[in-house]
Amino acid sequence: MLIVLIYILVFRLTHTLTTTHTQSKPTMLSALRLTSKRSFSVAAVNPYKVAVLGAAGGIGQPLSLLLKLNHKVTDLRLYDIKNAKGVATDLSHIPTNSTVKGYTPDQPDALRDALKDTDVVLIPAGVPRKPGMTRDDLFNINAGIVSGLAQNIGEFAPQAAICVISNPVNSTVPIVAQELKKLGCYNPKKLFGVTTLDSIRASRFISEIKETDPTKEAVNVIGGHSGITIIPILSQQKEMPKTITKEQKDALIHRIQFGGDEVVKAKDGAGSATLSMAFAGAKFADAVMSGLNNEKDVIVSSFVDSPIFKDQGIDFFASKITLGPQGVQKIHEYGQLSPEENEMLEKCKETLKKNIEKGVNFVK
Ligand SMILES: NC(=O)c1ccc[n+]([C@@H]2O[C@H](COP(=O)([O-])OP(=O)(O)OC[C@H]3O[C@@H](n4cnc5c(N)ncnc54)[C@H](O)[C@@H]3O)[C@@H](O)[C@H]2O)c1
Ligand SMILES: *[C@@H]1O[C@H](CO)[C@@H](O)[C@H](O)[C@H]1NC(C)=O
Ligand SMILES: *[C@@H]1O[C@H](CO)[C@@H](O)[C@H](O)[C@H]1NC(C)=O
In this model, does residue 44 exceed pLDDT 60? Predict the structure, then answer.
């Protein structure tokens, strides 16, 4: 009897899952997510090992805190050239199940021990932008840091999903790919440029105009991860207020593209976005783990190795992706664009192509 009941339940669940559209029925989907999670709890629940490289920084610390609070993480490794043990000890007093350990280069094999057997690696290591600096100015310093870390990931954690936060993401992601290719362990399905901050800014800023709940707003943001390469596709928004003017729309696009500058300016020499970025990074890592756990319809935006413009020499592109047990499961088409958005896309592609080449040439 019980078995029959379970069968009926499972059938109805899978049936609903395949017929439910993610975006249109968020409440239903989250309810389903909970149920599907429970059905996995027979085995160990989401036992993911996660490493943060650059964990003692402005982003690294709050990101590590949010990961310590995530029940999908059981083993958290914090690596930094300084203070990683301090941050790890501090976080280790928080009463969640996961263990947290810090690693610094003064220990022999610190990176190996931090990376060994990890499922997810997040990289916020680097230097942040100062006022007047573009993300491009950061290139040479951060490219060197990321490249060194990528070699270690290739050696000690070739199976891990790698989430790159260090800027310029549009160049650091190709750098990681190139290093892994050299080591013969590049898996394009497991390399991600974290562009979630662009998406969450878009949700927040558009909700201020529409006067809606920002947690329910989603904007399809495609392209790259800096300035004009960030393309929020506002034409795909349903229910934009009829009263919104072209000026307001342009201002919104500009604010999404240059939101980082707002923070750099306000912090006035004390760094760039760290707290909102930590939230974005933790949200992205959570989605990656949900995918690994085979949850359904895990859709996020990310800058990935993408077929969309590969024939035009653009190997990486940000668009919506579905995450699964092997990493990227599906890369979504970006859909219909307005003439203005098509123009933005052309400019984006020109710049992106140069940035990617720059990353590739750095490693060559
Ligand atoms: N993807 C995004 O949307 C986004 C948003 C904001 C900032 N960022 C980028 O994230 C990076 C970090 O920013 P932050 O504000 O946290 O800077 P931060 O200077 O506060 O922290 C960086 C940390 O990296 C560490 N580090 C440096 N070299 C290292 C190495 N070789 N190995 C391990 N750790 C190393 C430093 O010790 C420091 O703790 C910057 O590149 C910044 O531009 C990205
Ligand atoms: C934490 O561990 C305990 C003991 O193993 C377990 O019963 C509990 O479900 C775990 N909690 C979470 C949220 O994983
Ligand atoms: C990518 O990175 C470079 C370096 O920051 C930057 O100049 C550029 O505007 C960014 N966007 C694109 C598409 O390159």
Answer: no
